[in-house]
Design brief:
alpha/beta; Rossmann fold; Helicase, Ruva Protein, domain 3; 3 domains; 5-stranded parallel beta sheet; 21 helices
Length: about 450
């Protein structure tokens, strides 16, 4: 028995005072904190006061029966496990209690070992359920909108729409280049919705061979094809009550698109080789990095399926179009990578900042995260320099990168100075005195270059 079980509190309910005390004594000897009650109302008062981990109740009692007590406990503490004690002739009633949510029942007469085994199983089940609830809470927090970096106007607009549609039943299509964070947004939609207690099931339609994708999505019965040695539950059924995320949906073959459309319209799925359909209850969020409208014109994607998937379409901008997010993302990834490496968060040299902010990031956020993880591993003296960045990010001389970019964007000298000053300020965590020292100017000049009023 583990220490968590030893600290568990159990309420024993029986209108036979001797039996209640006897059971409490057995449980107490096993290391539990056992409290006895001789009526349903007394048990309810104990539960309200002591918040136990388990209730063991006799089924037949004078006044409030064990069945009625269980119904009251469900209203009082829905997640509290209940074990029913019954005589052999009342097993059917005990089974009915289990259908209503009782964890298990014990038939009289029973041995001490039988009782303790059921108690151990009930407490372990409660602990697992609490852990699942805790982990789901952590996931919901991790994928909350407040944790998504969005300093730019474009991403702020995307997150505003996510907040508006998250709790609706609408199907959502996420469009954007690879690495722009489509799955992150899909998870945010799920964990902000009323389905957050259900599963989030991602499937990459491009990563699964065409001949296996149908079985993965819809399942199959034993013998449906050569390698179907046993039945398999499909992802539509696995995602019941939750969200099914169809990544790279544009890569789905046309024949399967027709079957997917049928499932969406009928809300029923037929496993491969089966003759009967089963109802499905999922919300579909899909994603693509290709132009689905172009695929429709080319006859590679069904227009009717597109309309079913794209009740709401969100376009995630590439990182090069949301440069205001680069340094906030850098700081976010720095903190994460440093924690994983067990080291303090390093500072970033201004020339490294310039490289990070002027690189075009064709791999978007995923490429940026990899670059920062690499830099944290390679940097010395808790300072990231340009040499710690990937060669294609560091490029040639920083001055050349900045000048070429300034020319392409037709920046004035004042605009170029302002951007560089802001990059240096970001690299030192917003410390204006330190930024002024790096730039070789005083604070008053820094405020002027930033276009801000001087602080008093």
């Amino acid at each position: 028995m583990n220490m968590d079980d030893e600290r568990s509190t159990i309420v024993v309910v029986d209108d036979d005072r001797e039996m209640a005390n006897f059971l409490a004594e057995i449980l107490g000897s096993a290391g539990y904190r056992a409290l006895s009650a001789n009526s349903g109302s007394e048990a309810l008062n104990l539960v309200r006061r002591e918040h136990p981990d388990l209730v063991i109740s006799d089924l037949r009692m004078i006044g409030m029966s064990g069945h009625q007590l269980h119904a009251e406990l469900k209203r009082l503490q829905p997640n509290l496990p209940v074990v029913i004690i019954t005589a052999f002739g009342s097993i059917q009633t005990a089974v009915e209690s289990m259908k209503l949510g009782a964890f298990d029942y014990i038939t009289k007469p029973f041995s001490n070992d039988e009782l303790l085994l059921v108690v151990s199983r009930a407490l372990e089940d409660r602990k697992l359920r609490q852990e699942i609830k805790r982990l789901r809470g952590e996931l919901a927090h991790s994928y909350g909108l407040e944790n998504i970096v969005a300093a730019s106007r474009k991403m702020s607009e995307v997150l505003e729409i996510v907040g508006q549609i998250a709790d609706s039943a609408a199907s959502v299509l996420l469009a954007g280049e690879s690495g722009t964070g489509k799955e992150l947004i899909a998870r945010a939609l799920h964990f902000r919705s009323r389905r957050q207690q259900g599963p989030f099931i991602p499937v990459n339609c491009a990563a699964i061979p065409d001949n296996l994708l149908e079985s993965e999505l819809f399942g199959h019965v034993k013998g449906a094809f050569t390698d179907a040695r046993q039945s398999k539950t499909g992802l539509f059924q696995a995602a019941r009550g939750g969200t099914l995320f169809l990544d790279e949906v544009g890569e789905m073959p046309l024949l399967l698109q027709a079957k997917l459309l049928r499932v969406i319209e009928d809300k029923r799925v037929r496993p491969v080789g089966a003759t009967e359909e089963s109802p499905v209850d999922v919300r579909i969020v899909s994603a693509t990095n290709s132009d689905l409208e172009e695929s429709i014109s080319a006859g590679k994607f069904r227009l009717d399926l597109y309309y079913r998937l794209a009740t709401v379409t969100l376009v995630l901008p590439p990182l090069r179009e949301r440069t205001e997010d680069i340094m906030p993302l850098v700081r976010h990834f720095l903190a994460r990578a440093s924690a994983e490496a067990g080291r303090s968060i390093p500072e970033i040299d201004p020339d490294a900042v310039a490289c990070l902010t002027h690189y075009q990031w064709p791999g978007n956020i995923r490429e940026l995260q990899n670059a920062i993880s690499r830099a944290v591993i390679l940097c010395r003296n808790d300072r990231i320099t340009r040499a710690d960045l990937p060669a294609k990010v560091a490029g040639g001389e920083v001055q050349t990168v900045m000048v070429e970019d300034a020319v392409n964007r037709r920046l004035t000298i004042d605009q170029l100075e302002r951007e560089y000053a802001r990059a240096v300020l970001a690299s030192v965590g917003g410390n204006k005195s330190e930024a002024a020292a790096v730039l070789g100017i005083d604070r008053k000049t820094l405020y002027r270059k930033l276009g801000e009023p001087e602080a008093n």
